[in-house]
Amino acid sequence: MWNALQWAAAGTGFTFLMTAAGAAVVFFFRKKAGAEMQRIFLGFAAGVMVAASVWSLLIPAIEETQASGGIGWIPAAGGLALGALAMALADTLLPHLHPDAQNPEGMPSSWRRTTLLVSAVTLHNIPEGMAVGLSFALAAQHAEDSTAFFPAIALALGMGIQNFPEGAAVSLPLRREGIPAWKAFLYGSFSGAVELIFGVLAVLMAGMLTPVMPWLLSFAAGAMLYVVAEELIPEAHLGEHSNIGALGVIGGFLVMMVLDTALG
């Protein structure tokens, strides 16, 4: 357990630092450059999350179930559905505002527009942190295998890489809202802190619920896929020249696929 916690903290700490690095682009781009960059960044993040959901979460969930004599698709399908439903519920209840949208979603709230914008990204960082934490928890269960942690490291690298554009996707819209660059950077950076929190919580939860690990992995996959379908891909294709967002999706998918197959 302790080993898994250390690895998860290191992995999600890396993703947090990459979020901060991405948020720092606000110091280099003018306001008018933000919209196009945002489409590329969101598309790339979507591609990484789709590939990670398949290779790093669903396939291991199926393999773990089959190794224990179970039917692989049952926890994979059930967990995926539960994860998507949980994110849909959170999306319905938590006040948040997507970039370039006029009206907030979720329960009525007196939150400021800035808080609502940060809340939108923070919400979809939760399943990313869970995914990294659960991946390290799974690796810890097979610690006798010297290569067990490689897939989890690949996932942490992939999440970190896609967190760079996600950090920018927070800070650039905030800058367009008229917020000073330094403050937009701070908001963008700390939107990734939730990954560290939920990564560690996922390891603790997995330690108590080891028999249902395939369900937990699939749950994280379903939550991430919901975020991709409901938020990232639609926002990546807003406005003209939506092919830029589509190419971002393909690029992100390729990067995560190569990382997972090369290190896994």
Outline:
The protein has helices spanning 2-23, 34-67, 73-93, 113-141, 150-176, 181-190, 193-208, 213-236, 243-263.
Q: What can you see in these coordinates?
A:
The protein has 264 residues and is mainly α. Helices cover 77% and strands 0% of the residues. It has helices spanning 2-23, 34-67, 73-93, 113-141, 150-176, 181-190, 193-208, 213-236, 243-263. It is globular, with a radius of gyration of 18 Å.
Number of domains: 1
Figure out the total of helices: 9
Overall structural class, as computed from helix and strand content, comes to mainly alpha
DSSP helix fraction: over 70%
Mean pLDDT: 85
Cα separation of the termini = 21 Å
Q: Assembly state here?
A: single chain
Major sheet size, sense and barrel closure: none
Number of strands: 0
Strand content: under 5%
Apparent shape: globular
Topology, please?
Blueprint lengths: L1 H22 L10 H34 L5 H21 L19 H29 L8 H27 L4 H10 L2 H16 L4 H24 L6 H21 L1
Helix pairs in contact: 1-4, 1-5, 1-6, 1-7, 2-3, 2-5, 2-8, 2-9, 3-8, 4-5, 4-7, 4-8, 5-6, 5-9
Features:
0% strand, mainly alpha, 264 residues, globular
